[in-house]
Amino acid sequence: MADHKKRFEIIIQKLRENGQKITPQRMAIVKILAKSTGHPSVEDIHDEIKKDFPTMSLATVYRNIVLIKSLGEVLELGFPDGRNRYDGNKPYPHPHVICIKCKKVIDSNLGSLDDLKDEVAVETGFKILNHRLDFFGICSNCMAEKV
Amino acid sequence: MADHKKRFEIIIQKLRENGQKITPQRMAIVKILAKSTGHPSVEDIHDEIKKDFPTMSLATVYRNIVLIKSLGEVLELGFPDGRNRYDGNKPYPHPHVICIKCKKVIDSNLGSLDDLKDEVAVETGFKILNHRLDFFGICSNCMAEKV
DNA sequence: CTCTCTGCAAAGTGTTTGCAGGGTC
DNA sequence: GACCCTGCAAACACTTTGCAGAGAG
What we know:
The structure is a homodimer. The first copy, chain A, is 44% helix and 17% strand.
């Protein structure tokens, strides 16, 4: 089974277990999140779904993302421009590389921060629950453009 | 000369070099940013200054932060709760450790990410300009509280 | 049949901007 | 004296919320 198909089933299952109802809108949102390799914003998701579902409301997207986030099944990428992006395919913390020109976001597969996390915990006395590591720069496409 | 005094002079000097005028409001803002070990929000800064300067406007704080940010003399910490914090004492990227209960932010002195940055650049083809590394958790104070 | 979910519109929150008067250089 | 800066209030962008009707289980 394809990876994003699996993720879709997992999220839907988790919703069911929590007594949530499976509405068509909810399925459409989960479907996009499950294969969210493009790190869509709420508006991206809304636009995408409106193609087949013209009455879909932005509020519904927001509400469902809050819900799925509370189940730990989607990762929110806080964005400097105030437009958050979401990753429901890899909902655990992992490094992102972000182009400040075209806003493209790609995942990096490098570097576990577990050691550093432990060191920081000792240094500060915190119990570390979570982290985020983002690199900002210019992607090769944007660099190639002579603007 | 104390560290934050030095930072104050550096920022003021940089403003002068850029042809900006040194107003009392601006000095007050720079003074707080220069010793911003507490990582104040815009509202924190505004509140602090209003004690001696009751007519100080929020808009002025925002405008000055944009200006100083454009000179590279203050670091903006994007916050999940949408209330940004600022560090004008160490304006270069460095790891932060954030308590999700009391919102306290402290600096970590560990870990250079230069190696990782180079690896990510090779992996993705990006030219990396910047990064951010934040750990979220519970500080020892909040852990001690039986709430 | 019950109880949650949706769509709509209004309200909220943090930030930015237009304008006219005031202050720095 | 020229031009930038400030304070005020309105405008903005994103997100959240109240309500009444629709739909899942």
